[in-house]
Design brief:
Elements lengths: L1 E6 L2 E5 L5 E5 L20 H23 L6 H12 L8 H6 L5 H22 L3 H4 L3 H21 L17 H10 L3 H10 L6 H28 L4 H32 L6 H20 L4 H11 L4 H28 L6 H4 L2 H25 L4 H10 L5 H12 L5 H16 L1 H15 L16 E7 L5 H9 L9 E10 L7 E4 L15 H19 L3 E10 L4 H12 L3 E5 L4 E3 L2 E3 L4 H12 L3 E6 L19 E7 L3 H13 L5 E10 L1 H8 E3 L5 E4 L2 H18 L6 E8 L2 H11 L5 E5 L7 H7 L8 H9 L7 E6 L28
Parallel strand pairs: 4-5, 4-8, 5-7, 8-11, 12-13, 12-17, 13-16, 17-18
Antiparallel strand pairs: 1-2, 2-3, 6-7, 9-10, 11-18, 14-15
Helix pairs in contact: 1-2, 1-13, 2-13, 4-11, 4-12, 4-13, 6-7, 6-9, 6-15, 7-9, 7-17, 8-9, 9-10, 9-16, 10-12, 11-12, 15-16, 15-18, 16-19, 17-18, 22-23, 27-28, 28-29
């Protein structure tokens, strides 16, 4: 059924066969003709709308809490809430009669259309068309297949005999168009949230899904626009030509004008404020008015305005100021209206449930089977094809928009719309369970392999991921990479990650930058974040250009600080990264040392250290500089003096492995100083006694010492003919003597490399652990950055993967091992 208000108090009711009747309703006025003096206060339009929205928001929020453990998106909870409010549940109750009288539909529909206009504006605002222009062959093929096959197959499903009553000819052929468009849609904003929830945004699967969803939405928009202007009372020329002219004016005139004004504002150093946001929000209503006057839907104008606004600071401020109100207050009115028009309770009496079930299963399987087949041709696993096809079934508000437009054009009746609404709900609800199943199966089948510097084959590529939060952290990381010894046998692959805080966007994501290309159109001004990313990536590209054995992959992580480390972890696992390099976030110099502030990026660093699947290196940069004598004519400083302070433990072994790699760089000298406790001190610490003073056992630190001896001996054997490496040993009694020894004999180095070693059993570190100020640096690292005699030198603190992830730390390449088959043990 389709309601259309003619005048106040009167509606025309029409069905799919074109029969129309006029229904009038009565208002009781107590005195005079004042609008505010009705007998029932709920008949007043504004309080009634407020109560309707309050009920809808309350039920949807309650369902969101219930469905959150199941991983269901917000869209599923809101659609179910709308169906519960409608005739499927409350049709004969006092709730329906009080809150949803028939005459309230006019105001609710008006408010819903306004909400749709602003919602589609936000969708266009966060959609980046450059992703479609730069689609790979694989993404393009998958996108085309997952659009065309459901498009044609969905049109065929529409003609199946769904009704138990009425002739088959009662089905309007025009409805097949809207069914086909609905089944081909993959909602971009809802898919982005699902990918963010499952931490798949930065994976190949996530990137293919996002670009495909953008292509799907744009294709569906074009098809819907054509359908509206074609079948809107058969006024094709009178509707299509004005709409097309307006869209061309927006793209070729309004878009460059907005970009120019934004560029002028940023060049003058100005900032965007509420006035700019007011102008834009008024422009949304104006564009909606123009497209509505042209005979199309008002939301087309809002969507177009969102597309042409450059993605930058202004777009972020608009999202921050309006996203919650639009998605939380205005949009639920449309979903509630859709629920009022959906009647699932009477569906068993008027529809063939067997056919409906077959339609639902077939519609759900279309994209899944298509993705599995296409992914097979591109060499992807069946589980990835299943996951990708499931993601392509993610529906959203746009699917409901298409259905309601078809209903408004009398292309389908209420029964047909109820069936497809149920199908959309089922398809979207199945996304989370299937993804959980595929991810669990994949993780169970894949054996986790620790990736450390020790385990890295010296004759294969060395993969490093660097995390840069600001430009101040850039030079130290690049200078450290300069001395990381990139060779033809062991080239360095650098993943240069710029960390950007999540600010008002629909979802977090990881953007892969293409070298030499920008992620925005040339006529759009870059935001401050993009300008900073350009400077960071240009610096890394310059580093790459200086070395023929270095490859750089720029990345931008846009994520909340609380979950940013999880995105980084997933990427390191997918790319087999050996070490993550992060700068020590410092704020001020205190008593010759550094004191870390409470910036949220520090929490990111701590999470990286706590749960990282690979090694982590924290660099305290104090002006680290290096001039390679083979590449520079400067003789002022041609050497870099590096000291590795070895106290013992797995972290120190990992730090020594990195130091040994650095020592291979021409112009670098490495001094390895192993600090050992005196025998009396070691025996007192290691031995465990019972209550009577009898020796019971020795602690595990004695076993660690044996491993350290094997590791050191192997290193000394490999480097005995290398004049750039010097090995020293020093016997001490406690941590105070260790610091005094560094102050007196080892205070003239440019770079100190140490292990974090919070779990070290050495008596030399126990005393230092009690005075630690920066736990992320460990006892030795914290002592170095807090001491005045090493205030001139940079410090690199290295940690192996954390033990509390349930994995055993490897022994490394330097330890003697039994022979193992390279076929069964490729590592």
């Amino acid at each position: 059924m389709s309601e259309e208000a003619n005048i106040f108090g009167r509606y025309n009711i029409s069905n799919a066969q074109g029969y129309e009747i006029t229904i009038c309703y009565m208002q009781n006025i107590t005195q005079g003709s004042s609008f505010w003096q009705t007998q029932n206060t709920f008949y007043l339009h504004l309080p009634l709308l407020s109560m309707q929205l309050a009920l809808m928001i309350f039920i949807s929020r309650l369902l969101m809490l219930i469905l959150k453990p199941l991983g269901q998106p917000r869209f599923v909870a809101e659609v179910i809430a709308g169906i519960l409010i409608g005739p499927s549940c409350f049709s004969s109750t006092i709730v329906s009669k009080t809150f949803f009288p028939f005459e309230s539909v006019m105001l609710l529909e008006t408010f819903a259309n306004l909400g749709l206009n602003y919602y589609m504006f936000l969708v266009g605002l966060e959609m980046d068309l450059s992703a479609v222009r730069n689609m790979s062959k694989k993404s393009l093929s998958i996108g085309i297949a997952t659009i065309l096959i459901p498009l044609f197959a969905g049109a065929g499903l529409y003609f199946l005999p769904m009704h138990t009553k009425g002739p088959a000819s009662s089905t309007q052929p025009l409805g097949a168009v809207f069914w086909a468009i609905t089944l081909s849609i993959t909602s971009f904003p809802d898919l982005a949230r699902v990918l963010s929830h499952f931490k798949l945004l930065h994976t190949d699967l996530g990137r293919i899904g996002l670009t495909t969803s953008i292509l799907s939405d744009i294709t569906a928009w074009v098809l819907l626009l054509v359908a509206i202007v074609t079948f809107n009372n058969h006024k094709f020329l009178g509707t299509a030509i004005p709409t097309l002219i307006f869209l061309m004016i927006c793209w070729y005139v309004l878009r460059p004008g907005i970009a120019w004004m934004i560029r002028q504002t940023e060049n003058k150093g100005g900032k965007f404020n509420e006035t700019h946001i007011y102008y834009v929000t008024c422009g949304v209503a104006a564009c909606g008015l123009v497209t509505d006057a042209c005979g199309s839907h008002s939301m087309i104008g809002g969507f177009m305005l969102g597309l042409i606004i450059p993605k930058g600071e202004l777009a972020i401020k608009i999202m921050e100021s309006s996203e919650e109100f639009v998605n939380g207050i205005m949009l639920p009115s449309f979903i509630m209206l859709n629920g009022i028009r959906t009647n699932l309770r009477d569906l068993p009496h008027i529809a063939n449930l067997v056919v409906v079930s077959l339609i639902t299963i077939a519609a759900t399987s279309l994209k899944i089977l298509t993705s599995v087949i296409i992914c097979f041709f591109f060499g992807m696993s069946p589980s990835d094809g299943l996951a990708l096809g499931t993601l392509m079934n993610t529906k959203g508000v746009f699917a409901l928009i298409v259905l309601n437009e078809g209903r408004g054009l009398k292309a389908m009746d209420s029964t047909t719309m109820s069936i497809i609404t149920f199908t959309i709900l089922f398809m979207t609800a199945m996304v989370a369970p299937i993804l959980l199943l595929t991810n669990k199966t994949t993780r169970h089948a894949r054996q986790y392999k620790q990736r450390t510097i020790q385990r890295s084959n010296p004759n294969t590529e060395f993969r490093i991921l660097t995390c840069i939060h600001s430009l101040g952290n850039l030079s130290g990381i690049i200078n450290l990479l300069e001395v990381s010894n990139s060779t033809r046998k062991s080239p360095i692959i650098v993943f240069a990650v710029h960390l950007v805080e999540y600010m008002g966007r629909a979802s977090a994501m990881m953007i892969v930058q293409e070298p030499g290309k920008k992620n925005y159109a040339s006529n759009q001004p870059p935001s401050r974040e993009r300008a900073e990313s350009d400077q960071i990536f240009n610096a890394f590209e310059s580093y790459r250009d200086r070395h023929h054995t270095v490859a750089v992959q720029p990345l931008t992580v846009v994520s909340p600080y609380t979950t940013m480390h999880e995105d980084i972890f997933q990427f390191t696992e997918d790319r087999h990264v050996a070490v993550i390099l992060i700068p020590f976030h410092k704020q001020a110099t205190v008593a010759g040392g550094l004191q870390c502030d409470n910036h949220p990026i520090r929490e990111v660093n701590q999470n990286l250290l706590l749960n990282s699947p690979c090694s982590v290196g924290i660099l305290v940069d104090r002006g680290l500089r290096f001039f390679n004598p083979l590449e520079s004519s400067s003789h002022a400083r041609i050497k870099l003096r590096v000291a590795m302070l070895f106290v013992g433990g797995f972290d120190n072994q990992e730090a020594l492995s990195y130091a040994y790699r650095i020592a291979g760089t021409p112009g670098v000298t490495l001094t390895v100083v192993r600090f050992l406790p005196n025998k009396d001190v070691e025996q007192n610490v290691n031995n465990e006694y019972d209550g009577e003073g009898n020796l019971v056992s020795t602690s595990e630190s004695e076993i660690e010492k044996e491993l350290d001896d094997d590791f050191i001996n192997e290193l000394r054997f490999k480097s005995k003919f290398d004049e750039s490496i010097t090995y020293l040993e020093k016997l001490l009694n406690n941590g105070e003597e260790l610091l005094e020894s560094i102050r007196r004999k080892y205070n003239d180095f440019d770079l100190y490399i140490v292990g974090r070693g919070l779990e070290m059993k050495s008596p030399l570190a126990i005393g230092l652990s009690e005075l630690i100020d920066n736990p992320e640096l460990g006892p030795i690292g914290d002592a170095l950055v807090s001491s005045a005699f090493t205030s001139h030198a940079s410090v690199l603190v290295v940690q192996q993967p954390a033990r509390d992830n349930g994995l055993h730390r490897p022994m490394g390449n330097f330890r003697q091992k039994k022979w193992a088959s390279p076929i069964l043990n490729p590592e």
